[in-house]
Amino acid sequence: MLFRWNTIGTAFQAKTNIRSFKEFTHFVNVHVVTAGAFMGSTLEEIEFPDVTVIQWNVFRNALLVEATVPATITAIREYSFYCTTLTKLTILATTPPAVTIPPANTTCLFYVPAASVDAYKNASGWSSLASRIYAIP
Length: 137
Description:
Blueprint: E1 3-4, E2 7-8, E3 20-21, E4 27-28, E5 32-33, E6 45-47, E7 53-54, E8 66-69, E9 75-76, E10 88-91, E11 109-112, H1 117-122, E12 133-135
Parallel strand pairs: 1-4, 2-5, 3-6, 5-7, 6-8, 7-9, 8-10, 10-11, 11-12
């Protein structure tokens, strides 16, 4: 079953029975993940398909451990991945997405395409995270 929406609302907010959401790949044409969409959920892992914007507080206070953001991402808003459990955020975009405030907690490691590591480390909004930006293994 495919779902055809342009945004994800807050239907998954504070859900305590979700652990992995690899099924998100079935959501086609979802370009924006709405603010607070998974806030406070027990979701531990997610892979986004063709998302271009992840709004603020999407995973705030969630139990997320790992996330993969697609090459189509252009912006990651404030505190999008601010959950103390997040250890790994993989961003497949070769051009650093726009950020104004670091999108994740202080212990999260960021993995980006090898050819883009320097671009991320020097990009506005990302340079303060340079010591935690690595090439995707």
